[in-house]
């Protein structure tokens, strides 16, 4: 299972990178990207509170950033 | 005089460097031009604008002309920004980004320093307040030239 | 060449009444503060209050720092892992301060330690340093302290932009070190709890077999790619692996050993493996559909060598109102996990005691749904005062366990697999 997962990661990563060169916008076309709702960390405090809740109630954590949680709740 | 220059630029004497030739600044020849590319959504532009305003008041008499080219697609966004910062330098609008493309703008803001002979001498990508001193020394260098 | 110049509209926007603005004023130079107060209430169990403050500053040289402070006060009842029984069950309460306090669980009820309480203080800091126009280094550290737990971690990551900053590749490493010093000691995994009242009486008193201090250690690696797909679509793809080793047990969780008739003959402490490796893939897409509507969809797949596999899907939809002065954001999250290989709600006394076992419902097979709604109001900046945002957020979280084990006839009808129902209310203030 881990081997299959590794292969999936590598393939997904390669497809992603291969598509990159033909994607994107000019530097002056980032008006929408500059909006608050398009920032990946737009609601960092909300996400921190949610992550803490899910870390203490579920077996999975991380993904968006590092796993672990620095709390004794799991 | 300045008013005449600005009108002349608006009429199209302001030529991009698409042919890799030195920028023909027409009647702006003889002045040092700080050409800035900006947008209302660009966060460092909120720092470069007050800085450019200070440059303008300090060096206009020595021959500096600042032209700030706005790249917002929606003019209303640019106007809101201008109402906040109230620049006294020249502002132009390039909503389709054609001038930005011709200058190969890589970062927001980007600026180009053009000497009295219309030759592009320095290009700047991005703006941090610490960069201001370097840009200003480059400007003084060009102003000192005849 | 005149054609492209014509793009420049002839009317130059100018203003004569310029006010002097010093070069070092401006939004970026100020501290930005993001704070929230959250109240969490779990149906019939714990409740918690959590204030959190994030401060951040960008310096003139492009470097930035951020720091956060979290305080967490928990109190209430926490399941101890034992199975409901037809007779009253008595337990020592290891998680209460000082000497053991006994508590009794009524027949048919899920055993919970009613004296559970905890205070946690956590601080973190992060420093981001631009190395070049397209490279950035970030280092950070976190500290977290509870009366029975201490954690310290450090992380570093490096990001590189290319393709006109439309693509960012980053790689990061995190190292975490935890110390556990549970009240009454850390039980040896799988150790018995002796019956003070003799077998069959249901009175369990903890005896011996404990260490005063245990540790665990974790290392995580994360590789991420962020791509601007077009003007309205941003995509992020991360893969990560983390490996923890050491004392991975919950020191307060026990497992019931029952006979064929459903009577509890013994309680033993849970026993988890001393190593765990998790792998995850995470994909997030942020799309602006029109000036008013944007969505953030994230998908996560995770698997670990304990046999847990999970899938998570979360969707935020933000609808701007009144010319972006306020917005409303409904959220839905779906989560599904399989059980750890060693998860067991109870152990039959006729079977050989397994090396690894845990009845902790967090290692069981379940699915969970979260529904949320957020409302935010923006207040425009006045003079030197920056724009600020006030928000309120409500979330409902429900966990539904998937039953797996065959239950002895005598215990049928009891709610052996209760889920979790919780509500979160949060007020946020950003300025």
Topology:
The complex is a heterotrimer of chains A (74), B (146) and C (431).
Chain A: H1 2-20, H2 44-57
Chain B: H1 2-13, E1 32-38, H2 45-59, E2 64-70, H3 75-85, E3 90-93, H4 98-102, E4 110-114, E5 120-125, H5 132-144
Parallel strand pairs in B: 1-2, 2-3
Antiparallel strand pairs in B: 1-4, 4-5
Chain C: H1 2-5, E1 31-42, E2 47-58, E3 64-79, E4 89-93, E5 101-105, E6 112-132, E7 135-146, E8 149-162, E9 167-180, E10 186-187, E11 192-195, E12 204-205, E13 210-211, E14 214-230, E15 233-246, E16 254-258, E17 264-269, E18 275-290, E19 293-304, E20 309-321, E21 326-337, E22 347-348, E23 366-379, E24 388-401, E25 420-430
Parallel strand pairs in C: 16-22
Antiparallel strand pairs in C: 1-2, 1-25, 2-3, 3-6, 4-5, 6-7, 7-8, 8-9, 9-14, 10-13, 11-12, 11-17, 14-15, 15-18, 16-17, 18-19, 19-20, 20-21, 21-23, 23-24, 24-25
Summarize the structure.
The complex is a heterotrimer of chains A (74), B (146) and C (431). Chain A has two helices and no strands.
Structure, described:
The complex is a heterotrimer of chains A (74), B (146) and C (431). The longest helix of chain A has 19 residues, at 2-20. Chain A contains two helices and no strands. Chain A has 74 residues and is an all-alpha fold. Chain B has a single domain, classed as Glutaredoxin (3-Layer(aba) Sandwich). Chain B has a five-stranded mixed sheet with strand order 3-2-1-4-5, with helices on one face. In chain B, helix 2 links the parallel strand 1 (32-38) and strand 2. Chain B starts with a helix and ends with a helix. The model of chain B is unreliable at 1-24 (pLDDT under 50). Chain C has one domain (79-116, 146-430). Chain C has one helix spanning 2-5, and strands spanning 31-42, 47-58, 64-79, 89-93, 101-105, 112-132, 135-146, 149-162, 167-180, 186-187, 192-195, 204-205, 210-211, 214-230, 233-246, 254-258, 264-269, 275-290, 293-304, 309-321, 326-337, 347-348, 366-379, 388-401, 420-430. Residues 1-28 of chain C have low confidence and may be disordered. Chains in contact: A-B, A-C, B-C. At the B-C interface, helix 1, helix 2, helix 3, strand 3 and helix 4 of B face helix 1 of C.
């Amino acid at each position: 299972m881990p081997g299959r997962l590794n292969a999936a990661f590598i393939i997904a990563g390669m497809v992603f990178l291969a598509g990159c060169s033909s994607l994107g916008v000019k530097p002056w076309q980032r008006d929408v990207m500059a909006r608050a709702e398009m920032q990946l960390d737009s609601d960092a405090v909300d996400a921190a509170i949610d992550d803490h809740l899910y870390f203490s109630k579920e077996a999975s954590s991380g993904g968006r950033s590092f796993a672990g949680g620095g709390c004794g709740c799991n | 005089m300045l008013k005449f220059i600005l009108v002349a630029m608006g009429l199209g004497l302001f030529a991009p460097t698409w042919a890799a030739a030195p920028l023909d600044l027409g009647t702006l020849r003889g002045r040092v031009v700080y050409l800035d590319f900006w947008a209302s959504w660009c966060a460092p532009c909120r720092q470069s604008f007050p800085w450019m305003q200070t440059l303008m008041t300090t060096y206009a008499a020595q021959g500096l002309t600042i032209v700030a080219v706005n790249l917002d697609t929606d003019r209303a966004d640019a106007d809101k920004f201008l109402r906040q910062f109230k620049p006294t330098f020249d502002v132009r609008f390039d909503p389709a980004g054609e001038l930005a493309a011709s200058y190969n703008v890589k970062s927001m803001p980007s600026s180009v320093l053009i000497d009295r002979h219309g030759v592009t001498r320095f290009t700047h990508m991005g703006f941090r307040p610490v960069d201001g001193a370097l840009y200003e020394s480059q400007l003084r260098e060009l102003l000192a030239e005849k | 060449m005149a054609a492209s110049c014509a793009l420049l509209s002839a009317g130059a926007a100018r203003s004569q009444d310029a006010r002097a603005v010093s070069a070092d004023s401006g939004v970026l130079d100020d501290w930005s503060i993001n704070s929230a107060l959250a109240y969490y209430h779990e149906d019939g169990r714990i409740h918690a209050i959590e204030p959190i403050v994030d401060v951040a500053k960008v310096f003139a040289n492009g470097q930035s720092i951020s720091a956060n402070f979290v305080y967490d006060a928990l109190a209430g009842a926490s399941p101890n892992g034992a199975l409901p029984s037809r007779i009253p069950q008595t337990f020592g309460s290891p998680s209460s301060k000082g000497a053991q306090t006994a508590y009794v669980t009524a027949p048919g009820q899920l055993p919970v330690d009613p004296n559970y309480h905890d205070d946690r203080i956590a601080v973190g800091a992060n420093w981001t340093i631009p190395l070049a126009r397209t490279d950035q280094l970030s280092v950070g550290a976190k500290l977290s302290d509870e009366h029975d737990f201490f954690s310290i971690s450090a992380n570093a990551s490096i990001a590189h932009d290319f393709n006109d900053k439309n693509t960012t590749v980053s790689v990061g490493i995190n190292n975490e070190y935890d110390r556990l010093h549970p009240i009454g000691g850390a039980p040896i995994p799988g150790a018995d709890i002796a019956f003070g009242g003799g077998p069959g009486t249901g009175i369990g008193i903890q005896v011996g077999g404990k260490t005063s201090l245990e540790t665990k250690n974790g290392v995580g690696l994360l590789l991420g790619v962020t791509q601007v797909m077009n003007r309205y679509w941003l995509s992020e793809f991360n893969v990560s692996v983390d490996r923890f080793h050491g004392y991975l047990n919950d020191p307060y969780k026990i497992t019931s050993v029952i006979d064929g008739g459903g009577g509890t003959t013994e309680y033993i402490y849970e026993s988890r493996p001393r190593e765990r490796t998790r792998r995850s893939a995470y994909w997030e897409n942020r799309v602006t559909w029109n000036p008013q509507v944007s969505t953030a969809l994230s998908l996560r797949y995770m698997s670990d060598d304990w046999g847990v596999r999970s899938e998570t899907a979360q969707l935020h939809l933000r609808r701007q109102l009144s010319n972006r002065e306020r917005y409303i954001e409904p959220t839905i999250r779906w989560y599904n996990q399989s059980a750890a290989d060693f998860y067991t709600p109870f152990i039959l006394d006729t079977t050989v005691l397994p090396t690894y076992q845990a009845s902790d419902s967090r290692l069981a097979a379940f699915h969970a749904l979260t529904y949320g709604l957020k409302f935010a109001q923006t207040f425009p900046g006045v003079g030197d005062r920056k724009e600020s945002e006030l928000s309120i957020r409500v979330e409902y979280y429900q966990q539904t366990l998937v039953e797996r084990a065959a239950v002895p006839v005598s215990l049928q009808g009891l709610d052996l697999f209760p889920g979790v129902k919780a509500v979160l209310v949060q007020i946020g203030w950003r300025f």
